[in-house]
Design goal:
Arc Repressor Mutant, subunit A, Alpha-Beta Plaits, 3 domains, globular, cytoplasm
């Protein structure tokens, strides 16, 4: 699979020396998930997924609870969920997910980030067909064989189980996300190094040093946009 998920998470988190920025992104996403369904993670899978991901980024419980209470309180604040697709250097592919209360502003900012950093916007569907929506869950303290045994005992299907650095990463269909977590919780594993549903590239691209530097500048510009929640791509940046 090529990606080191814990390293990617740490890199994203380290960019935000002001943690209020990452807290704000999660607060918005939790609010929207709670607003669109039941404000109870046990009854709302979308809310449960974003809360689990927030925990892996050490988002405080007070931030999570505040966003849920805001949704319960009947706030009329509303956000549109948007997905942009585009290309970076050497045909690299990028997907940008955003939550915004101003569609025109966000579209302009995303387009500007692409145009100013060697990329260009594509039409809907021009990139996403090369990605698979995937549940990614990571734990520490077990081998891949031990993880496989736990999941087999729980009758959970997965795509792949890989040992990456000191963690074991499980790749599965999105609808298996909760079942995988429950299987681990039954054997006393409640802490996850990564827990999210992401867009995983079917094939990864390796760029030259110069092209990779330009690509990383583009990704940073996109991730710096306030309304952008997630940026997915097909470039191997592990090296």
């Amino acid at each position: 699979m090529g990606r080191k998920w814990n390293n990617i998470k740490d890199k994203k988190a380290s960019k935000d020396t002001n943690t209020s920025r990452i807290y704000a992104k999660f607060g918005r996403e939790i609010y929207v998930a709670a607003k669109q369904g039941e404000p109870d993670p046990e009854l709302n899978q979308a809310l449960r997924v974003v809360i689990e991901r927030a925990k892996t980024y050490n988002v405080p419980k007070t931030i999570i609870d505040r966003a849920i209470e805001k949704a319960k309180g009947g706030s009329d604040e509303s956000y549109d969920e948007l997905r942009y697709e585009g290309f970076g250097p050497n045909g690299s592919m990028i997907i940008v997910d955003a939550l915004t209360n101003n569609v025109n502003r966000t579209a302009a900012e995303v387009r500007a980030a692409f145009n100013k950093n060697g990329g260009n916007m594509g039409v809907s569907g021009s990139v996403s067909y090369m990605f698979d929506e995937t549940a990614v869950i990571g734990i520490e303290g077990k081998t891949a064989d031990e993880v496989l045994e736990i999941l087999m005992e729980a009758d959970v299907d997965v795509r792949d189980i890989l040992e990456e650095d000191e963690a074991v990463i499980i790749y599965a269909e999105p609808d298996q996300f909760h079942a995988i977590q429950e299987a681990f919780k039954k054997v006393g594993i409640t802490d996850f190094t990564v827990a999210e549903i992401t867009m995983l590239a079917q094939n990864e691209l390796t760029l030259s040093e110069e092209a990779q530097a330009q690509f990383e500048k583009l990704i940073d510009a996109l991730e710096d946009i306030e309304d952008v929640q997630q940026v997915y791509h097909n470039v191997d940046l592990d090296e």
